[in-house]
Specification:
The structure holds 2 protein chains of 2 kinds.
Chain A lengths: L10 H4 L6 H7 L2 H17 L6 H25 L1 H5 L16 H22 L2 H22 L6 H21 L4 H24 L1 H6 L5 H4 L2 H24 L5 H23 L10 H30 L2
Chain B lengths: L9 H52 L12 H4 L12
Classes of the chains: A mainly alpha, B mainly alpha.
């Protein structure tokens, strides 16, 4: 039996066999995943009750892998759009380093595997919410909302809001008010966070025909809406404290962090862009701060819970 | 990827093989990690299950307040949930 020599036109070269594992890793959007893992972990650590460390690790792993699968499916579906945007054109699919079918198969495998393991190891409710969050991101947001409406990120924000709820339910086994509040906090945080980004990359979105708010409704309307969402977010983050579901450490942190968020949003919301030469510094600052804001807010929720549990 | 139809040069072939090797290693690490994880999950689940079983047996064996209890085997009346459900000495 003779073996054909490997040529650059051989199917083996053009197929997924040539893909570096780092490209598969890049499909999972590791930077976005960091926030997903962190909020999921905070939900798990802040929940009342006890969970075995092995099961806690499994729950977080499933959240991360599920988010990675959803991200891979998102990139499979949006490969053409990504190719037209400077920010995304170096991703594995638009850069031509991987076949589309490989990304699709990888995404489905991660999504399916994470839901099955979550169901077997943690529980059916958690698995169902994880499956919903993957479906929400990969289909409701990516396929349905994103190319159709400027409200895409508002409704689609729900996809990223599930992890703390999943983490919480992994411990308690049922849905209560607190995980719903955590969901709502991320839900209300997403529009100002994402529109701040959309303001300084709006030419890219316009080029590929994605109806992001600044492209469709205009910059002024987007700025007002950023401010409006930030104004709602501040009192919303205080509700757990007000209802006695979180302590003073969380409450004061939420107040201070939210006040800064609101101030930066007001700066962005009330200013007018000075045209093409505008460096968009306040928008970039708000975007960077919004990430820090969510990290610190959720970290304080855990610190508050730990102090209440072990400090008393 | 646009290549002309020709055999790969030794450098290209070496790079191709290196990518394959690195991917195989990554896959091996992932599979090994999954084996360890599934084993650990199984152990935890078995332990939790045995504790639950012992507790439910203890509840079944507990006498109802105010009712006369027929003298039964001691092992049914006092079960240690931690010690694999065996009767306390």
């Amino acid at each position: 039996m003779s073996i054909a020599p490997i040529t650059s036109e051989s199917p083996v070269v053009a197929s997924s066999l040539d893909v570096d594992w780092r490209d598969f890793f890049a499909l999972t959007k590791p930077r976005v995943m960091t926030l997903v893992i962190f909020t999921g972990l905070c939900g798990l650590l802040a929940a009342p009750g006890h969970i075995d460390p092995v099961l806690a690790f499994t729950a977080i792993l499933c959240i991360a892998v599920g988010a990675g699968g959803a991200a891979a499916l998102n990139q499979w579906w949006e490969a053409d759009i990504d190719a037209g945007m400077k920010r995304t054109q170096k991703r594995p699919l638009p850069a031509g380093r991987m076949e589309r079918s490989s990304a699709r198969d990888f995404g489905f495998a991660l999504a399916g595997g994470s839901v099955v393991v979550m169901g077997l190891a943690i529980g059916v409710l958690d698995a169902a919410i994880l499956a919903l969050s993957i479906f929400y991101y990969a289909w409701i947001y990516t396929v349905w909302l994103k190319p159709r409406t400027p409200q895409n990120i508002v409704i689609g924000g729900g996809a990223g809001a599930f992890p703390p709820m999943i983490g919480w339910i992994a411990v308690t086994g049922h849905i209560t008010l607190m995980p719903v509040l955590l969901f709502l906090i991320i839900f209300m945080w997403t529009p100002p966070h994402f529109w701040a980004l959309a303001l300084f990359v709006q030419t890219d979105y316009a080029k590929v025909g994605i109806p992001m708010m600044p492209v469709v409704a205009g910059e002024r309307s987007t700025r007002y809406q950023i401010l409006a969402y930030a104004a709602v977010l501040l009192p919303l983050t205080l509700v757990p404290w007000w209802l006695g579901l979180a302590g003073v450490i969380y409450g004061v942190s939420a107040l201070v962090l939210g006040a800064v968020f609101l101030a930066l949003s007001a700066w962005v919301g009330l200013r007018r862009s000075s045209g093409a030469e505008d460096t968009m510094k306040p928008e970039k600052r708000l975007f960077a701060y919004s990430i820090l804001y969510l990290f610190v807010l959720f970290a304080m929720l855990v610190v508050d819970h730990v102090v209440a549990t072990f400090g008393a | 990827m646009t290549f002309e139809n020709r055999p790969l040069t030794p450098t290209e072939l070496a790079a191709f093989r290196a990518r394959q090797r690195s991917r195989s290693r990554a896959l091996a690490v992932v599979l090994l990690a999954l084996v360890v994880l599934f084993f650990a999950i199984t152990i935890v689940k078995l332990r939790d299950e045995s504790i639950r079983d012992a507790k439910s047996r203890q509840q079944l064996a507990a006498p109802i307040a105010g009712m006369p209890t027929p003298a039964g085997p001691a092992s049914l009346q006092s079960v240690d949930p931690v010690n694999d459900g065996q009767a306390k000495q």
